[in-house]
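Continuing the batch. This is chain 6 of the set; chains 1 through 5 are on the previous pages. Same settings as before, nothing changed between runs. Recording input and output for traceability.
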Amino acid sequence: METITIKDIAKALHLSTSTVSRALRNSYEINPETKRLVTEYAQKMQYRPNPIALSLRESRSKSIGVIIPEIANNFFSQLINGIESVAYDLGYYVVIFQSHESYEREVAHTNFLVSRKVDGLLISLSSLTTNLLHFQELMTKGLPIVFMDRVPNEIATHKVVADNFEGSYGATQHLIRAGRRRIAHLTSPIYLSITTERLAGYRKALEDHGIAFDEKYVRYFAHGGKDEGENRDGIRALMQLPEPPDAIFSASDRLSTGCLAVLQNEKVKVPEQVALVGFTNSGVADLFNPPLTTVVQPAMEMGQQAMNLLIRLIEHPQAQNNFETMAFKTSLNVRESSAGA
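Output for chain 6:
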């Protein structure tokens, strides 16, 4: 069967091409009966819109650039699933890049995507990003950008995050109620939004339960748990303290699983010697030895919402001053790694 065009549909139904085009886009200018006729005929003839022609006509590429730290992370892979589910339904294509926690890669990927004329960007900052000029300049030029998970305070736009404070507070409180008093906190570089928010929840839970905050129990990991040597050295240093921790709360997916691996290699018994709770969206946390107590973020829903907000900026640019920061509630799944609660 030859490819059918809008002109063919218009000729068959004795309509103008502009009417058919508007009807296929569900325009309010076209009456319902005409829309029905056009839609049914298009389906019958297996009409498929030409994305290149559409982009040329609308001055849009119908593509979205996504830059995340890494895909091999349960949280980010679920986030992408949410983004793509909305993008597909709305006729947009998604181009995904990984920064691998590198500021230089993040800038290079951003420049490439802009050179390919994406309609907007969805960004989760790398752990080494402190200079935001590359994003600020693009937004000044009118490029829609929405930030996810790791978000900058300095840039006014839509942001989608988890309620990191409450998630961290609940995890720390769980360990306290399990009888633990020397609770260590493993986290990412201090300038990341997720670091400051999760650290604040940890500190507040200690304070509310009469436990003094002690900086020696906090470890910042420059690579967010990706560097096995850094993980090993940091956790060893904690366990060699005169009063080593009796619990560890880790603030990222990589740190959670990495911490468990290091404790096992060091012959530290979990949870007998050290109880463990971590932020992770791993679907196999219950298969670890022991099963890992986790703070879970609704990553799929966060990705869907981020995509919806970006589409709003793309298709309704006049509303760009009405920015939202949407915080999604986390959940605590208690398993054997923190037994005693």
